[in-house]
Amino acid sequence: MHTLDGHDAGGQFLRRALTLSALTGEPVRLERARGDRPNPGLANQHLAVLEAMAAITDAEVSGGELEAETVEFDPRTGTGGDGAVEISGGEYTVEVGTAGSLTLLFDAVLPLAARLESPLTLTASGGTDVAWSPPVDYLRYVKLPLLRQYGLQAALEVDRRGFYPAGAGRLRLHLAPSRFHPLDLETRGDLTGVCVYSTEAAALADADVAKRQAEGSLERLQTRIGSDGANFEVRERVETTAESACPGSAIVLSLEFEFAGDSAETMSTPSPQAGFSSLGEPGKLAERVGEEAADAAVAFLEGNGSVDAHLADQLLDFLVLGGGRLRIPAVTDHVETSCRLLETFGYDLEFERQGNADGSTLLVAETELE
Hints:
Layout: E1 2-5, H1 11-24, E2 28-31, H2 44-57, E3 60-62, E4 71-74, E5 78-79, E6 85-86, E7 90-95, H3 102-109, E8 120-126, H4 136-148, E9 153-160, E10 169-176, E11 183-185, E12 191-201, H5 209-224, E13 233-242, E14 249-257, E15 271-279, H6 286-301, H7 309-314, H8 316-322, E16 324-328, H9 333-344, E17 350-352, E18 361-365
Parallel strand pairs: 1-2, 7-8, 11-16, 12-13
Antiparallel strand pairs: 2-4, 3-4, 5-6, 8-10, 9-10, 12-14, 14-15, 16-18, 17-18
Helix pairs in contact: 1-2, 1-3, 1-9, 2-3, 5-6
């Protein structure tokens, strides 16, 4: 059993530990979970991840309760003829019970596609567009399309939006057995397109919040990028009015680039490789919400990373599953913690720091996770 100290780490450390345990079939014990947080131990969203992963892997669990600071997880997965872990598919349901993030829950489950024996469907209720996590349109229009280019078979249904504080959103994730190809994300091609996904709760429709968010983001991009002669096309602009248990809004900008490197020979359509989002808040102008997302996109374009900072951490599981090369904007605390956790389970990532002034770093994984 791997014994881990979660005192200096947050919920992502717990989620990735459960994912790696499920992928390898090796049990894990996490002590002092979220120990340095104002409210240490498991909150509703962390408990929901634990319950979902336990159901999918038929795991034996101790510490599966709110505020628990020590958790043990022992997956009861089978093995195939090649000795690799096999995870049964099926249909599962989990409720967060609060506005806890459903996209972070799904992040923990997605890598399991590499070990599935049969299709899996997970229906989850909670928050779809909440602080400190990617909005659902980031998952739907940035992360999933990119991973599909490299072998993931997944689809996402959005039944209902859930904003803070009520939550009550509902998403359905469908996964099929997948074999991941090596990531080829060392070099970023030229920017070719921008997609805008702006959402408002029905209670905000009279104020045209979704339209104003989209206009604010595009005007800022045109001012900051277009003035420098950059050529980009608005490939898609979607403004959605959604039923929700409480008011709220969100915007996601997806940046598409020409393929570079070896992948250019096999992939014919531009790839979404970066996404930037902002959430509405009481008293914040809708235009400002859009501008915040655009400012983050501009800052990214000034560097050399091939994916945005959030994807940089989220893609590490897929990098060790399929191998490949990934240039990240910076080695953040999240990335360093994640790499140490991967090493605990026996999987190393090679860092190639090449002295770029912007701090970007190349991560390399040459072998597949066995």
